Amino acid sequence: MIATGLSLALAVAISAAPGADEHLLAGARAFRDGHFDAALVEFRVAERLGASDAGAYAAASLVQLGRPEEAVEAFASSPPGDDDLLDWYRALACYEARLYTSASRLAAKLQLSGPKAAAAVEKLRADLARVLAPEPQQASIDWYFARCDDLRQRGRGALAAAYCREAADLGERRTDRYGVARASAVLTRLDPGARHEVKP
Amino acid sequence: MIAAVVTSLLLGAAADPCAPVEPAGPADAAAAAAYRSVAEAEAASGSRDTAVLAYRHAAELDPADRSSRDALGRYCRDAPHPDPFRDGMARMDAGDRRGAIAAFRAARARSDDPTIALMEGICHYELGEDREAEPLLRAAERSPDDADVASLYLGLVALRGGEAAKAAALFDAASATPGLAPVAADLARFARTDGRWALTIFADSGFDSNVNLAPLQGTPSREGDGVYALGATGLFRPRGPDGPYFRAQGLLNQQFHLSAYDVAGGDLAGGWQVLTARWSALAEYDLGYRTFGGSPFLTSNRLLASAWTAVGGVTLGASYLARFESYASGFSPFSGTVQAGELRTSFGVGSRARLALAYGLARDAARLSILSYVEQGPRAELRVAMSRRVRLGVDLAGTFRAYDVFDPSLGALRRDTYLDAGALAEWDLRPGWTAHAGLRGRQALSNVAGFEYGKLVPTIGVAYTFSP
Predict the structure, then answer these.
(1) Among A119, A180, B38, B221, which one has the highest count of C-beta atoms within 10 angstroms of its own C-beta?
(2) What's the pLDDT tens digit per position in A71-116?
(3) Domain count for chain B
């Protein structure tokens, strides 16, 4: 249902570069029909042919394909807040990539119409509230730092920054603010642009 | 061109991507290059299916694109790689834990997802390979998503290794997750009594509505009284749960006013428990001593054997005991041998409750034949974890007793029926401390009116368990 909504929204919003439109349209149809691998390919082709907004749709496809970390990276090229449907997928990507505080911030702002969509958003919010209810353990925060460090060494700066940002946000939820200063230092070293982009 | 691409996607998405490549309308080298670029990126990220799809489109749009055709041919010649994690899960579900471990190991070679380590660790634990399980569970414990389940299994590993206090702490950590709370809280409580040694002390108080088991009508009249009980149980297991054990128990059950019904006693027991992955069993000897009304009452020697196994989520068990009873003078006609056996099963009811059903058969061969009987009947226990710290229980039992011979003094061959019911609430105040409130009731029916009675015993109490 949400997938259909996204494809319709995309179909009426197409205004990409010549040659890219047809791939955006093909991607939208494939997405609507549940062929997310085909949708991803088409959106990626559209992106390469000049459709700058195709990256977000490719990111939504990556969410549906169970590739949330790549989706988070793909969403990094476009800021949140322009489209609730895309922000729904952005929140899902963060949730599935274990970026819970980022997902929570996105989910808090979502206003999807329709009872099923609203119920899905409510469920996501409830799941996030459950995950974020207890005070984060130091071991959990250390896990995010380890993930951040690993991704940084692999050259995936945007995603690394997202994990370090999550470590900082979790540290802020502890009375001793464990890891906050360390996260700030790491984020400062990471690409400032990437750091800004991944913060919803 | 648009129609060709859209049609190919709508129809072709579900078609075989490795079917022979046919040109898709006029050649479009620019679009083909874009598809090839996407295909290479997807291939680099390990996404075979999308890479194949994109290479195929590139080959369809540009017959001269040999690199895309070659790449497509390469992918299609290779058998599709199964997902080793899914394979492992399927093998685990089928009970093939060795196969599952091999698959999970292959999956870990591709991905450092802690969930894979968790599942492999669980397989090792279930095979009794705790040394292999622990590092995998530790790796999974560092992931926030898997930490709770990993803690639960690390607790089980610690428990099996005889580290009860460590196990209890791990179960406590796991019980913070609502879905795991019922089982983890139960395991934490169990672990606190499952170390190499444990000492439990308790104090109860309540009211017994019919201390003298007086009949509903006639004489003697019913006498109710307040009661308090103090007790302690010490358990020593030098090799942990799997091996020999020794137990000492003391009990003091005092009436507020009717001291003739006071009971005190103690037990010394020694036994051996064997725990394996498939079944468990114990054998035990128990020496018991009781006083009644402050005077010697009973000395008993009891032999007990019990075995149990789990089949899926159902536990099946059986036990047998023989108790050789020697009553003090005045009660000596009751002396003799009691033999009892029970078959039992227990299983989960939903995520928070467990139901146990049992059927018992007992024979009391007393020195005086009119006191000898055979009794049998069913028993049911329901335990519900209401929250992380609160449990409720309901017990029901029916016992049908038939005496051996006609009793000339009663003028009857006595037949009794006992209907027992109980309700229990337990509240874990803090680690080691448990408060409880209970209500027990019995209705005794008999073909001899003087043996019919009813009683209710509400109690409250608190218990504390010391453990290493």
Answers:
(1) B38
(2) 999 998 888 888 888 899 999 999 989 999 999 999 988 887 777 7
(3) 3
Minimum CA–CA partner of B7 in chain A:
A26
> Which residues on B lie below 8 Å from A51 (Cβ)?
none
* Same domain? B99 vs B25: no
Domain ranges of chain A: 2-132, 138-198
Say if CB B255 and CB B262 are below 8 A apart.
yes
Widest CA span in chain A: 55
Same-domain status, B147 and B274: no
The CATH architecture assigned to A2-132 reads: Alpha Horseshoe (1.25)
CA gap B119, B96 in Å, rounded: 13
**Closest-CA residue in chain B for A132?**
B144
Contact at CB, A45 and B38, closer than 8 angstroms: yes
Same domain, B367 and B312: yes
- Choose among B1, B141, B176: nearest Cβ to A139: B141
Largest CA distance in chain B: 113
Planar angle of CA A176, A179, A182, nearest 5 degrees: 135
Q: A119 or B399: which carries more pLDDT confidence? A: B399
Q: Which of A38, A142, A150 has the CB atom closest to B142's CB atom? A: A142
Question: Is there a single domain that holds both residue B373 and residue B233?
Answer: yes
Strands (DSSP E) contained in B209-352 are 225-236, 243-255, 263-275, 279-292, 295-311, 314-327, 336-349
- Mean pLDDT across the stretch A163-169? 92
The residue behind tokens 């479009």 is B28
Is B47 in CB contact (< 8 Å) with chain A? yes
CATH code for position B30: 1.25.40
List the single residue in A25, A98, A139 with the smallest CB-CB distance to B6. A25
ipTM: 0.81
Residues of B in contact with A33 (CB under 8 A): 10, 13
- What mean pLDDT value characterizes chain B? 87
Are B281 and B176 members of one domain? no
- pLDDT tops 60 at residue B4: no
Mutate to test the interface with B, among A41, A137, A149, A174 (most CBs of B within 10 A): A41
- Name the residue range of residue B9's domain: 2-77
Check CB contact under 8 Å for B9 and A38: yes
